[in-house]
Each structure stands twice: as C-alpha cells, then as structure tokens.
Design brief:
Length: 261
C-alpha cells in the first residue's frame, strides 16, 4: 500500500483521487434493485418473462439483488435494454450470480443481444470477434450456490446502439443476480456519485481510499472473508497487489464499497 497525495486541502485531494480512479458511469438502470414495481412484481427498469421475482439482499453494502423462478414451461427471463451505446466501441459487462435452488443440470446463463438505433436485433454474423460465444453461451454457467462474479468485454458492431441484457433460469431452478454493470472500456463501473459518497474507488488493478485522517481499511471477498487489512493515512491511499478479475468489498470506517479489479 502506498500513499500518493499528501499535504493538500481535503477537497483538492478528492478531485485528484477521483481522477486517478477514473470512475466510470454504470449504464445499467436500477442496478441495485432498490426501486421495485409492485404492480408488475419486478424491479423498475427491468422486464420479466414467464417468472416470479422478489428482491433479496445483495452482495455488498447498500445494494440488493433480484431472485426469480420459472413459472412457464420453458425459461424465465429478466432483462433490460441498455441504450445510448456507441458503435464499434468496447464495453465491459459484469454481474454476480448464484443459484438459490438447483433443480436442473442446466439452470442459468446470460443471454445478450445487440440492437441498432431502431431497436432491431442485429444479425449475429455482424458480431465482432468472439462476442457471440460470451454473449450467448452455448453452455450454461456453473450451478454455484455461492456468489460468482462474471465479467465479459465486448465490442458494439457497426450500427450497434443498444444491448439487450438478459438473464435466464431453466428447469425449475431459482436464480439470484446482483450488481449488474456495463461501462465503456474497462473498469469498476463506479459512478462519480458513488465514489464521492464512499471515498473508495478501483482502477487499473488497484484500490484507492480517500482518507481525512489515520484509519484502518478492511478488504473482504464475496464470501465475507477478510483477506487484507491496511493502515491508511491522510490523503489518497493506493492499495495494490490484490488479485485481478476479483470482486471485493472494501470497508473504511462506516463506509463500504464493492470494487471490481
């Protein structure tokens, strides 16, 4: 761990630390599932097909997840259209999932589709590189009863302006999903508002903690296990050496933030 800014007014440090962390806008609407549509029995800004959904406790502070089960004979899908994308541009999509009930060997997978500006589905032949294999996997994700984190990087095809971000559960199983993110390029998906609220960021494989005094930072994995403790000093502190591609919950005082490396 190293401290990268010292002896500067606290407000100036905040601006510099935020710049270092390159906080990015999460393009997913209602990613914490705190807003719920009781009339239709689903989270706001999300669509639900052939299933029943409930809100559940999520994987980090101040967030919730969504749980849904199949009510039809095929599959139950929950999805959102992420709009306003730029063609020929790289995006990083991530989410956490687990199976609350496993009734089938093939229970859960993501199912994403590109759309153009008229909301027409783009032909799969126009997908870039290996995007199709990770957006619409031929196999199913692991039937894990513990939270798993998934991250994929994809590129919008020519005329790509929207992503149909769908998640499907099969065979009578019950799936849970939390913390869906989509950001341009690659990064944690933290918004500037989140970063300002917690003073905790991630960028370039490191964690940044903005402190106005001496304190202790605790880093937990998604199983709730403490994996690291660091002493921080006044200023913007950098925590390096954590495992790339992992999700952590970082606690500092009464603040906590999920970060993706």
């Amino acid at each position: 761990m190293k401290k990268i800014f010292t002896s500067i007014a606290f407000g100036a440090i905040a601006l510099m630390c935020a710049s270092s962390a390159m906080a990015q806008e999460n393009l997913v609407q209602n990613p914490t599932f705190t807003e719920w549509n009781d009339q239709y029995g689903r989270p706001e800004n999300w669509l639900l097909y052939d299933g029943e959904a409930t809100r559940v406790e999520g994987t980090s502070a101040d967030t919730y997840g969504v749980q849904w089960l199949q009510t039809g004979t095929g599959k139950a899908s929950i999805l959102q259209y992420v709009n306003g994308l730029t063609e020929n541009t790289k995006y990083t999509v991530s989410f956490d999932y687990k199976l609350a009930t496993v009734n089938s060997e093939n229970s859960f997978r993501n199912w994403f589709r590109w759309q153009d500006g008229d909301r027409e589905t783009i032909n799969k032949e126009n997908y870039v590189g290996d995007d199709l294999s990770v957006m619409q996997p031929s196999g199913y994700l692991e039937n894990s009863t513990e939270w798993k984190h998934m991250t994929i990087t994809v590129t919008t095809p020519p005329a790509g302006a929207s992503l149909e971000m769908g998640f499907r559960v099969y065979g009578g199983s019950v799936a849970q999903m939390a913390n869906p993110m989509m950001v341009e390029g690659s990064g944690s998906g933290l918004s500037d508002a989140q970063a300002e609220k917690t003073g905790i960021y991630s960028a370039n494989g490191n964690v940044y903690v903005l402190s106005n005094g001496v304190g202790e930072v605790e880093v937990y994995n998604l199983l709730g296990q403490l994996v690291r403790t660091e002493q921080v000093v006044d200023g913007c502190n950098e925590l390096s050496g954590l495992n790339a591609g992992q999700v952590y919950v970082v606690r500092y005082g009464d603040k906590a933030q999920k970060v993706v490396l």
